[in-house]
């Protein structure tokens, strides 16, 4: 079995007809864009002896740690951030998984703004 476009439309409630979503992917400042869109900054890579193994996103465990459950008394802004993090997780873990199996790419977060 595989997930179809119709499945995604039903799961997310997003329209699947119309113009395609396209754009340029800019890697500069991705951590700041994550902060702006979900309100939490990913931890910077601090090991100077080794190259950052995840320069293109955050671990799924990071999303789960900060966005597991939205507080009941959350403001509309916080609810929006939790919803954005949820959709980011679905897009990167279910719809467009990559070879790492543990990383949510930041490039899927930008269109959710």
TrEMBL record:
A Pfam family this chain is assigned to: PMD
Any GO BP annotation: meristem maintenance
Domain Aminotransferase-like plant mobile: 1-109
UniProt cross-references to PANTHER family, sorted A to Z: PROTEIN MAIN-LIKE 2 (PTHR46033), PROTEIN MAINTENANCE OF MERISTEMS-LIKE (PTHR46033:SF8)
Listed name of the protein: Aminotransferase-like plant mobile domain-containing protein
Species of provenance: Hordeum vulgare subsp. vulgare (Domesticated barley)
């Amino acid at each position: 079995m595989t997930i179809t476009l119709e499945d995604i439309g039903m799961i997310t409630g997003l329209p699947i007809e119309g113009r395609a979503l396209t754009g340029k992917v800019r890697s500069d400042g991705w951590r700041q864009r994550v902060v702006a869109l979900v309100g939490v900054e990913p931890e910077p890579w601090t090991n100077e002896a080794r190259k950052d193994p995840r320069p293109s996103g955050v671990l799924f465990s990071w999303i789960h740690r900060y966005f597991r459950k939205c507080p009941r008394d959350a403001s509309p802004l916080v609810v929006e951030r939790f919803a954005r993090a949820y959709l980011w997780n679905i897009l990167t873990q279910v719809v467009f998984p990559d070879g790492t199996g543990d990383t949510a790419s930041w490039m899927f977060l930008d269109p959710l703004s």
